[in-house]
Write a structure and sequence with these properties.
The strands form seven sheets. A five-stranded antiparallel sheet has the order 6-7-15-11-12, covered by helices on one side. β11 and β12 form a beta hairpin. The chain is built from six helices and 21 strands. The chain has three domains: 56 residues, Uridine Diphospho-n-acetylenolpyruvylglucosamine Reductase, domain 2, CATH 3.30.43; 109 residues, Uridine Diphospho-n-acetylenolpyruvylglucosamine Reductase, domain 3 (2-Layer Sandwich); 76 residues, UDP-N-acetylenolpyruvoylglucosamine reductase, C-terminal domain (Uridine Diphospho-n-acetylenolpyruvylglucosamine Reductase, domain 1). By secondary structure, it is α+β, with helices and mostly antiparallel strands. It starts with a strand and ends with a strand. 35% of the residues are buried.
Length: 257
Amino acid sequence: MNKIIDFSTFSSIKIGPCVEVLVIDKIAPLPPSYIIIGGSNNLLVSPNPPPLAILDKSFDFIKKEQNVLHVGGSTPSGKILCFAKKNNLAGFELMQKLPGTIGGMLKMNAGLKEWEVFNNLIAIRTENGWIEKKDIPHGYRYADFKGIVFEATFTCKDGFNETLLAMFKRLRENQPNFPSAGSCFKNPPNNFAGKLIQEVGLKGKRIGNMAFSDQHANFLINLGGGTFEEAIELINLAKEEVFNRFQVRLEEEIIVL
C-alpha cells in the first residue's frame, strides 16, 4: 500500500516535495533501496529523494505488562509522555523535549545530555527478531543496529517527575518557534555546535528564506517558503567556516534525503 505525503507540510522543517511513500503494515524487511521515515522531525527531504517508506498506524500502540512498557515503532513521543504521566511512570519525561516517533528516536538515540532514549530500553523488535540493548552499540546521537523498529520494550517504575518535566519544558521554550528539524549539527566532543556557529558569525545568517536562528544558532529555521537548496547552502557554509576557523568538522544531526 502506498500513500502520498507532502513533505512541505508533513516535515517539521516544512520543506520537500509530494512523494508516494510505501506504507509498511506488517513485520517484514524493507524493500531494497528504501529508507524508512518516522514523524519527519529531523529530515530535510530533497526534490528527488530515494524511495521512502513509513510504518502503518497499527504500529502506534502502548501497553504495560508488569514492569515492562511495550511501544510500537510509529508511536509519537507525545503519546508516550501522556501515558507515562497518566500512569505515574518514571523515565519518560524527556519526551517533552523530543518530538518524533519512538522508532526514529531509537535510530539516533535521541536525547539531551545524560537523558537518552536508550537509558530505559530493554530491547528492540526488528524484522529479524528481538535485539537486546546490550547487543546494540550506542552512544551520543547514534545507535548501530539494522532494520526497522517495529516495537520496543522499556523498563518502567513508578515516579513520574514533574520537576524534570518542567526543566525540559523550559529548555524547549528556548528553542525557536519557526519550523526547523531540531538541532542541525551534533555537538563535537567537548564543544557546542551552536557556540561554534555563533563564533564564526553565522548566528542569524540568512540565505533566501532559510536562516540559522538568532535565538539558537544550531537551529536551521524556515522563515516561510524556504527551499532545500537554501538549507544545504547554509549547512555547507557553516561546515566550511567552522572548519577553517577551528579545524572542527561539524557533523549533521539533521538527516538529508
